[in-house]
Structure formats: C-alpha cells, structure tokens
Specification:
With 180 residues, the protein is of the alpha/beta class. The protein is built from 4 helices and 6 strands; from the N terminus they run αααβββββαβ. Strands 1, 2, 3, 4, 5 and 6 form a 6-stranded mixed β-sheet that branches.
Length: 180
C-alpha cells in the first residue's frame, strides 16, 4: 500500500472512530450528568446489598429490607401513603418484596432527579444539552441463596403510584444503562 493509500485509509478510520464515538453515547439518552446522579443512589444501594448478603442470615433478610435497616434506599410496602417518599430530586425505592424458598425478589425504582449540570464538575457537563430532563429505571432484583448468594436485575414495568412522584418529563431507561 502506497503512502497516499495509507493516508486515505487513516483518515477514513479516524472519521469512522469519531462518528462512532459521537453517536454511541447520544443514542442511549443518558448523558454523564444524569448517569452520575443515578450512580449517587445506585452505588450505595449496591454496596449495601453486597455487605448485607455477606453478613446477614437469610432468614433475617426480608425483615431487614422491610424495616430499612439493611439496604440503602426507601422501602414502600405498596399501601402506605407516599407523602414521605420524596422522589422529585431522585432516589431509590424498594417495593413489592416477594419471599420464596431459596431466595427473594423485589422491585426497585431508581431515579436521577432533574438534570443538574451546575452541580456537576465533570468536563463537558456545561455544554448544550438536548436530552431528557431526568431518567429513571424500574426493575426487579432477584436474589438466590444457593449455592452462594447471587443476584440479577430484570427490567420491569414501573409502579404508577411511584412514577407519579417523579419530576415531569423523565425518560424510562433500562437498569443496564447504569452498569459500569
């Protein structure tokens, strides 16, 4: 391959990389600001889940989730008034706890709250933005105890009573958007 062919090839490869990089994140609908806002709720929850599963006896897990002593987030039993659950600024709500032999599952609503670029000190967070004002994810977390504790997320339909507490204009996304 001659010099001019290598030059054209390099230019084409560079252009392809730039286009791929620019279009990949934009199509997901979750920019860095909203992602970090969600992580502020999901990361403490994930840490508390790991710590809880390491030290809490299986038989005490459901009770500790219900009384709010084990996991980061707010537990809602599905019947109590929602006045005390403030989701307008983001948050994580655990609900619909189901116990079964060898494990349990519950639903989680995870919300970013309104996009707050002014409070985000990361590079690029202050530019023009055309995405949703907030994002939220609804999923079921299933925990199996045998042979050792493990868990997995599955996207779910959102509980309407909870989504009515969110700031208007939010976009629902997969919980998998916030892995990493």
């Amino acid at each position: 391959m001659g010099y001019s062919q290598r030059y054209v090839f390099r230019q084409a490869a560079t252009a392809l990389l730039v286009v791929t990089a620019l279009s990949g994140c934009a199509s997901q609908g979750v920019d860095g600001v909203l992602w970090r806002q969600v992580a502020a709720f999901k990361d403490p929850f994930s840490r508390s889940l790991v710590n809880t599963l390491e030290i809490t006896p299986v038989e005490d897990l459901a009770g500790g989730i219900r009384d709010g002593s084990l996991l980061a987030g707010v537990y809602w039993d599905g019947e109590a008034r929602l006045d005390s659950i403030a989701l307008e600024d983001g948050g994580l709500v655990i609900h619909d706890l189901k116990e079964r032999t060898g494990g349990l599952s519950f639903d989680v609503l995870l919300s970013s709250g309104p996009r707050d670029a002014a409070a985000d000190n990361s590079a690029g967070s202050k530019g023009l933005y055309f995405g949703p004002p907030s994002v939220y994810a609804c999923s079921e977390l299933t925990i199996d105890f045998e042979p050792r504790p493990r868990w997995g997320w599955t996207d779910q339909d959102c509980e309407r009573a909870l989504t009515e507490r969110l700031a208007p204009g939010g976009q629902v996304v997969s919980i998998n958007e916030f892995d990493g």
